[in-house]
Amino acid sequence: MKTLDQIMLSVRTDKASKYHNYTPVYEYYFKPLRHKEIVLLELGIGNIESENREGESLKGWMEYFENGSCYAIDNSLVNVGRTPRSFLCDQTDKEGLENLIKGFGNPDIIIDDASHIQKNTMKSFQILFPLLKSGGFYCIEDTVTAYWPDWGGHHRTFHYTNEPPLTIMSLMFDLCHFINLKRQETFNPPKKTTISDWIKEIDSIHFHHSQIIIRKK
């Protein structure tokens, strides 16, 4: 049986070891789900004409999760038109995303490989994480863009103010603090600290090189 990396290399996606090497991390988390009837949603299809052929990853997921249902969204009609099980939808379109998920069911896995623009990445997470199944994984790729100005990033991602976070990394740092404060009634917390209900559903956040895996309770 092929490993996830062998599959992704065969379809020439940049998730594989020849490029970003995200596949070993995904295999670690996803292997127990491989033969189950899961639902996977990937944000972003990519440009098939690029050197790395980013748009082929959905084919790889369909092969890996042979009993699963795998889908993708993109805001380019060209990308959607050449990719199976894909839909035209912007990653920040709350109504559109919610309607799609009503159609194919709440995902067990969501992978954000879309624009990598910080405000878009944060918006997608805030829309979709509440729709993730219990025990599911929300995955964000290419988080190094949080440090790149052209993607809305900044070299100072640390966030210690009351202003909204500017990058996905600063948002994740905040969420780490919230996870530690979830039992705040026991430890005499700051009175002004409030935690949204959907944040309370985060079980854990795992940081890997340019890759974040968030698990839902």
Task: Report, as a whole number of angstroms, the end-to-end distance.
Answer: 30 Å
Alpha plus pi helix count:
7
- Count of individual beta strands: 7
Q: What is the C-alpha radius of gyration, as a whole number of Å? A: 17 Å
Strand order of the largest sheet: 3-2-1-4-5-7-6
Strand content bin: 15-25%
Secondary-structure element order, as H and E?
HHEHEHEHEHEHEE
**Class of secondary structure makeup:** alpha/beta
- Helical residue percent band: 25-40%
Uncertain stretches = none
Average residue-wise pLDDT: 87
Shape: globular
**Major sheet characteristics:** 7 strands, mixed
Explain briefly what this protein structure is:
The protein contains seven helices and seven strands, in the order H-H-E-H-E-H-E-H-E-H-E-H-E-E. The chain has helices at residues 4-10, 23-30, 57-64, 77-81, 94-104, 118-128, 168-180; strands spanning 39-43, 69-74, 86-88, 109-112, 137-141, 202-208, 211-216. Strands 3-2-1-4-5-7-6 form a seven-stranded mixed β-sheet, sandwiched between helices.
Describe the structure.
The protein is an alpha/beta fold and 217 residues long. Helix content is 29%, strand content 17%. The protein contains seven helices and seven strands, in the order ααβαβαβαβαβαββ. It has a seven-stranded mixed beta sheet, with helices on both faces. Helix 1 packs antiparallel against helix 3. The longest helix is centred in the last third of the chain and has 13 residues, at 168-180.
Which structural traits does this protein have?
seven-stranded mixed beta sheet, alpha/beta, 217 residues, 7 helices
